[in-house]
């Protein structure tokens, strides 16, 4: 799979919600979120499934790696790309922790980042 981010990145955060935990098998997912139209699949086509009333999850059809979350918003669709799937995962650094109410307690986090019980003001959604 190859993709390109052409649009602006509205937010970069760690999501600790139960949906992300279950979909990724991890205590949190680091996302870069922006407009849906800003993501182009350039090699291969991901597969997707409606994971909840608010969105669809996309994954690699060959290896099953989780790639993205498409959010259905009244103002327009958003797309969150998993930072771990970037060619350089250090290129973008998360700026906050979201959905801390469902954080797994043993998961060590960067305490210097702002923490929110909901998506937070920098969520991009």
Description:
There is one protein chain. This protein has one helix at 18-24, and strands at residues 2-5, 11-15, 29-35, 39-43, 47-52, 55-59, 66-71, 78-82, 96-98. It is mainly β and 125 residues long. The longest helix is centred in the N-terminal third of the chain and has 7 residues, at 18-24.
The structural class is mainly beta
* Gross morphology: globular
Mean pLDDT: 90
In this structure, how is the largest beta sheet organized?
7 strands, mixed
Quaternary class? single chain
The overall number of domains is 1
How large is the count of helical segments?
1
CATH structural class: Mainly Beta
Helix share, percent: under 10%
Q: At CATH's second level, what is the architecture?
A: Beta Complex
CATH topology: Metal Binding Protein, Guanine Nucleotide Exchange Factor, Chain A
Poorly predicted tracts of residues: none
Query: What is the string of SSEs from the N terminus onward?
Result: EEHEEEEEEE
Computed CA radius of gyration, to the nearest angstrom? 14 Å
How are the strands ordered across the major sheet?
A: 5-6-7-8-3-2-9
Q: Tally of extended strands?
A: 9
> Approximately what portion of the residues adopt beta-strand conformation?
35-45%
Distance between the termini: 25 Å
Keywords: Lyase, Metal-binding, Zinc
GO molecular function: carbon-sulfur lyase activity; metal ion binding
InterPro entries: CENP-V/GFA, Mss4-like_sf
Pfam family, one: GFA
């Amino acid at each position: 799979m190859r993709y390109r981010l052409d649009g602006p990145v509205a937010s970069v955060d760690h999501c600790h919600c139960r949906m992300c935990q279950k979909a990724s098998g991890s205590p949190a997912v680091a996302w870069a979120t922006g407009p849906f139209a800003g993501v182009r699949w350039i090699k291969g086509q991901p597969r997707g499934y409606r994971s909840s009333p608010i969105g669809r999850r996309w994954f690699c059809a060959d290896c099953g790696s989780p790639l993205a979350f498409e959010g259905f918003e009244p103002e327009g669709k958003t797309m969150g790309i998993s930072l771990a799937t970037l060619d350089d995962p250090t290129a973008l650094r998360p700026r906050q922790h979201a959905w801390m109410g469902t954080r797994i307690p043993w998961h060590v986090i960067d305490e210097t980042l702002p923490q929110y019980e909901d998506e937070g003001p920098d969520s991009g959604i």
